[in-house]
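Sequence of 3-dehydroquinate synthase (Sneathiella sedimenti).
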Amino acid sequence: SSVQVALGSRSYDILIGADVIDSAGSVIRDILKNPRVAIITDDNVAKLHLKRLQASLTDAGIEHSAIIFPAGESSKSIATYGDLMNRLLDSRLQRDEALIALGGGVIGDLTGFAAATLRRGVDFIQIPTTLLSQVDSSVGGKTGINAPQGKNLIGAFYQPRMVLADISTLDTLPQRELLAGYAEVVKYGLLGDYQFFEWLETNGKKVIDGDAAARIYAVEQSVKAKARIVAEDEREGGIRALLNLGHTFGHALEAETGYGAHLNHGEAVAIGMIMATELSVRLGILESQDSGRIRAHFKSVGLPVAVPEIAGVNWTAENLLAHMRQDKKISGGKITLILLNAIGDAFSTNNIDEPDILSLLKQELQE
Ligand code: NAD
Ligand code: ZN
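Predicted 3D structure, token representation.
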């Protein structure tokens, strides 16, 4: 199936299905200005899915080269970006040739930023291979790399020309990465689509366990939600902020653990969504029955609902609040939070007093 991101002359399609990689060549040939592309990927994904993509490009008469980086967040760096630019410029890549990002959010963000800045902009195509990148990072045009000073501090808004989400690639994804992406899937239900949340309550386990039809539906609904929000608010002046549900708390948890393997982004966001939910209940905005339902669903699929004990990490409410104050989503001196009126009805506020946030954090940390 296909979903469009409506952005005028920069509109693009997201194709979702099983084995779409195998027809990537014929699908993208029409939008290429030149039948030549450079594929950017990481060493995990290269072993598993690069040959399929190369075969389909060759079949469609598209010339291709591949640049492979080590898997992991460390490849979203200034050094890797510099290396990538050098290699692309050395390879005589002309202005009208395109880049293909084959991989998760790391490869997508890095490749998108390279495409945005190479000769002031070349076309790029996203082929996301993690659940997180299929439902979130490949859609919407946020590209970038990390700086020593913090995550995603160097970047650009730059939309891809097409997104190909092949759910068969998820068959090789480790369970923990799959769950991390699932946290973002539930987020779309919680922030704006009660019926989707209800569907996930019944079918979420199927999505996790590998049912292809359930995966296609979940990716499609997620992408539709993101596409709608991005079309309305490309540069995050308003409604796009709702996508940060669970993220202000989540980023604080990630920062406290040094973005390590102990707590990945999806896990941090899952706990963050629980915190936002509980805060909404404490403020008398959300019914406790609803927060119970959310918690029960997270538990039933295996998402964390509480801050885990991690060796070397001394969680305190004060430390987490300090990280939240530093988060870029702060405005007018107050922390911006996304809270819930109900399941499927989120809103943004910067009207929450810090003592209320602090006491919520103390409750969650059982301080
Ligand atoms: P990732 O790209 O690091 O992928 C996770 C791991 O899975 C890696 O080890 C990767 O090699 C491996 N992998 C990828 N596809 C696989 C497959 N099909 N089978 C087996 N292994 C596979 O991480 P991610 O979770 O996809 O993305 C996280 C990144 O996305 C972060 O840098 C985050 O900042 C960024 N992000 C960006 C946006 C945005 O709007 N641009 C939104 C959310 C997150
Ligand atoms: Zn996220």
